[in-house]
Write a structure and sequence with these properties.
single chain, alpha/beta, Rossmann fold, two-stranded antiparallel sheet, 8 strands, 26% helix, globular, disordered N terminus, binds guanosine-5'-triphosphate, binds magnesium ion
Length: 197
């Protein structure tokens, strides 16, 4: 590992960065890869494959007609918060059902997750919510506000997704680092509170 990727880079030896693994999950095309790309301080690792005419029939593209690629394994990025001595490792999941078998591997060691949702296709993110509920992994729901989508309130989203009380719902634009930062702060706070840290 070179010094650019060292966990002690930019911090004094007594206070190295605390590494936290965060999953970025949600249904097909909700903006997971976009989120990891917009915040990562290193060149993100992405595994995009072209959506072919054949797979376009399986992949529901309503509302995201400009989308030409899809994640086939994972996204990986990193963002540090020097003042808090935290370094987040972001792992984006593939959104399509046929890649579900990878989720258990990706989830290993994660302290929390962001479930991104697109309110035009809310049902696409049900499975991700259920996945984290079943495994008791703390998560927040981040509503990625696509142009033209109706802006539901947090309680409305919570009801539609049948969330437990206390699961944070935040609104974001996955294309904007500032907005993604707020989502990540929420997930870290929620995860640490949930684990009693
Ligand atoms: N208008 C708008 N478009 C967005 C936003 N976030 C993502 N997009 C676009 O929506 C499309 C889907 O984004 P991706 O980041 O590939 O979605 P994904 O969840 O990684 O998709 P899969 O990996 O295929 O499940 C892309 O064309 C993005 O440019 C957003 O906040 N607003
Ligand atoms: Mg993706």
């Amino acid at each position: 590992m070179d010094s650019k990727t060292s966990d002690t880079e930019g911090s004094d030896e007594a206070f190295p960065f605390i590494p936290l693994k965060i999953l970025v999950a949600g249904g097909f095309g909700v903006g997971k890869t976009t989120l990891v790309r917009s915040i990562s301080e290193i060149t993100p690792v992405t595994t995009e494959a072209l959506i072919t005419a054949a797979s376009a029939k399986l992949d529901h593209l309503e509302g995201i007609e400009g989308k030409t690629t899809t994640t086939v394994a994972m996204d990986f990025g990193r963002i540090s918060f020097p003042a808090q001595k935290l370094r987040l490792y972001l792992w984006g999941t593939p959104g399509q059902d046929r890649f579900w078998f990878m989720w258990d591997e990706l989830a290993l060691g994660a302290v929390g997750a962001v479930v991104l949702v697109d309110t035009r296709r809310l049902a696409d993110s049900f499975a991700a919510v259920e996945y984290f509920l079943d495994r008791d992994l703390p998560f927040v729901v981040a509503v990625n506000e696509f142009d033209g989508s109706y802006s539901y309130t947090g309680p409305e989203i919570g009801e539609a997704l049948d969330l437990r009380p206390g699961v944070p719902v935040v609104h974001c634009d996955a294309r904007l680092a500032r907005s993604v930062t707020d989502v990540l702060i929420t997930v870290v706070k929620h995860s640490l509170a949930a684990t009693g840290t």
